Every structure is written in C-alpha cells, then in structure tokens.
Amino acid sequence: MIPKRTAPLVTNVPDRPQTSRTYRLDPERGRIAGIVDGTDAVRQFVYKALSTERFAHAIYSGAFGHEIAPGLDRNIAVAELPRWVEEALLQDDRITAIRDMELSAEGDQMNVRFTVVSVFGEWEERRNFDV
User: Most Cβ neighbours (<10 Å): which of 42, 82, 107, 122?
Assistant: First the structure.
C-alpha cells in the first residue's frame, strides 16, 4: 500500500546563500587549524583546487581539482593551461571570474598569474606548475 500525500512537498522557503565557513588548512604543519570564512575560505579553495590533480583521489568528485599533469608537451600546456585553471576554479559559485591571465615558462615549469574575482572581492594569484 502506498501512502497518500496530504501536504505539498515544496514549501516557500527562501533561498539563502550557503556559508563559506570551512576548516582552515595549515599546509606547513599538515593539520586543520581552526575555521575560515569569506575571502580566506575562497583563497583556500583556490589553493586546494590548484594543488589537487583531478581524478587522482577518490575522496574528491570528478569536478574538483585541475588537469595539469607533469610531463605534458609544452605547446599543449601553453594552449590548455588557462582553460584548466578556469575550469578548476569556476566550480565554486563564490568565484565569478578569472581574468588577466599571464603565462610564462622557466625550464620545466609554467608560471601563471591571474586575478580571481569572487563575491568577496578580487585578488591576484600566482602558481607554478611542472610540465
């Protein structure tokens, strides 16, 4: 027997933005050290997303991380790096844009500089990737 529904399943609950509160990572000590919110939480997301290779860890969904793998042909890295960075970071709804991206190469490294635009403000990021 299937029960009959007497009340509507959907109510008029206003949409509220999710909090940015999360655990603060201390990568130097390899520990969680408190809580972060707002801009610091988004900065931490940027750090973590660009430090984690996509599909390499079962704990993360296929949408988390980057696709920049060591050993890539330099021409492919130059062509694809901007897209890979944007795809990794724009997964987070708090990040609205990535702009002013600049690439440079030094030896086996690609250096990238860009501006992160978020709902909390904007800032410049710099990252180096082995290719």
Answer: 42
The answer to whether 125 and 87 are in contact (CB under 8 A) is no
Instruction: Please calculate the CA angle 117-120-121 and round it to the nearest 5 degrees.
Output: 45
Per DSSP, 64 falls in state S
Asked if 60 and 52 count as a contact pair (C-beta separation under 8 A), the reply is yes
Look up residue 34 and give its two tokens: 């408190």
Using left for φ > 0, alpha for ψ between -120 and 50, and beta otherwise, residue 84 falls in: alpha
Contact present, 68 and 129 (Cβ < 8 Å): yes
pTM as predicted:
0.81
The Cα–Cα gap between 10 and 12 comes to 7
User: Percent of the chain beyond pLDDT 70?
Assistant: 90
